User: Fold these one by one.
Assistant:
Number 1:
Amino acid sequence: MPLHCNKENKAGLFEVFYKTFLFLLVLSLAFLSGSQAQASTIPVGLTFATANYTQCDTLLIQIQVSTDKAFSNIVDQSNWTVCQSNTNFTYSAYLPPVQGNFYWHGRHMNRCTGEVSAWSVPFRFYLLLDPSKLVPGDVNGDGFLTPVDLIYLVQYFFAGGPQPTPPQVGDVNCDGKCTVGDLIYLINYLWKFGPPPCRPYFKPLSLQQAK
Ligand SMILES: [Ca+2]
Ligand SMILES: [Ca+2]
């Protein structure tokens, strides 16, 4: 496809498209069966919404997925051109079959001028392959239940911190919702010998959202 440079619209295009990453929707997990968990990679849809723009064929989208927030261990990346306004796009990332937190971010490039935007903020999601292997109460998804999880819940409820990963794990008393009551429940367990966190229920196909 030939590239076109419309200098009158260039600045506006960059501004508009940058916003698309701030409105992303993120993440549908599509494969949870045991046989698929044995695959060398797991396809995961990363979805974002584009705003209204016009000179689409001058924009190259770059997306990276990593196991850490600093993007020091990138497990998938892609470059591609978007040619539609006001549309939800889904990029299929192929990830190693490792249950846990992943992060992705994106940026755009004007292929005519070579201008490159800054990377968007990182968006986190949880790759859920086997709910039975989740550690009850491990709300930060690092695989262990420690006082750090308590701090994580405090920040979630009172300081705008990220939600538990996956979200159902935050319901440590299994009453169907994640509330301050779960925080108290976890305090009682860690320091007052209360009952342990329960194992959350998951439907066969779960949708996890990043924050
Ligand atoms: Ca933890
Ligand atoms: Ca609860």
Number 2:
Amino acid sequence: MTNNHFPSVYTADTEQTTAPITRRVLLECTAGLLVASGIAAGSIQSANAAQKYAKADVSYQDYPKDGQSCANCKFWDGAGGCEIVEGEITADAWCAVWVVV
Ligand code: SF4
């Protein structure tokens, strides 16, 4: 029997569905959980020192969100870049892994 109310991987009778969790959804959920749980910025930084996220994977946008922007984020380098997100970053932008300075 299939449960169509939730996009879970397994139904109540453990039958596998055909709705895989995408990499993007997994990263967005992970980023949101890290921010919501208040995990130390240093932990995030050390875990991602060698690899940066693509903008699309962290819901990057070119405008601030609720007073949060790259200019007041822990990972802003002050020179158009971010320690954990790839590419050119503007001070007025925002993404889902924003952490207060
Ligand atoms: S808000 Fe996102 S893109 Fe901007 S500095 Fe922080 S981590 Fe980098």
